[in-house]
Write a structure and sequence with these properties.
The chain has 301 residues and is of the alpha+beta class. Helices cover 20% and strands 22% of the residues. It folds into 2 domains: 17-92 and 146-300, Rossmann fold (3-Layer(aba) Sandwich), CATH 3.40.50; 93-141, no CATH class. It has a 5-stranded mixed β-sheet, with helices on one face. The longest helix is centred in the C-terminal third of the chain and has 15 residues, at 268-282.
Length: 301
Amino acid sequence: MGSFDRPYGYGQGAADFLGNEYPLVRFAEQHGLDVTYTTDVTVEEHPAELLGHATLLSLGHDECRSLGERQAAVAAQAHGVNILFFAASPVLRHVRPQASPLGPDREVVDYRDSSADPLDGRGNPLEVTGNTWSAPPANWPEIGFVGEQYAGYLEPGATPAPFVVADASAWIFAGTGLARGASIPGVLLSDFDEVDPGSHPANLEILGHSPVPLGDAESSIGSERGVAYSDMTYYTDPSSQAGVLDTGTNNWIPALAACPASQASCPAGAIGQITANLLHLFGQGPAGRLRPPNPNWQQVY
């Protein structure tokens, strides 16, 4: 169980904010972007607020979602709101808010075993937490919404792996000078997502396809196949034309930050240009109207 009634136990009480979110906040403010800030609790309590915006940005390590939050995002997508997952493993863990002595929705519960949840067998099965959304009784995998699946993580202390371009002709790489197969060093760390060739949106475009060194990683997919990848994916909703992009790595936002002068190669410049291209397109309304995806997953996999 988590609680909002006390400071977080790490990150100087701010948890992941300073590392996994603040670099993008700073980027947006430096460039004068028209952004609005909200919280998970606000979305849970006022889901319709998402409908008044062009894009929903999912920052940081945003893997925990309640039913109310998920339904709000799905409804927004159906109304043409683009969705941008800046970090890996989004919408993976199934949580539920509950009241604390200080007020409603101040605690977050996630029963890793659904049979331990007091709601199991009572009422809406989508309210029953079972660790992940794909687990019973919810049985609602995130792949069709996110575009790909959680695949593992690079061990703490591992050397960051490079981001590798899969489709250099795509709009997102404009102005970078990157060719197909080119790499940006120092980008991949922590959790990563990978395309499941057997389950994904039909019009999925793979923009980045980056090998993950298994010697530094934990990945059940990698253990089975002998190879694992971090993929950046893009697809659009066939009805609303809302775009959905997943960077495929937890380290995208941290890679926006300036590097120490002693660091030989810094990804911030290239990552900043790609991020600017992404926000420029997604800020103009349903992305599919301007940049429909180029379904290339069969060529990549």
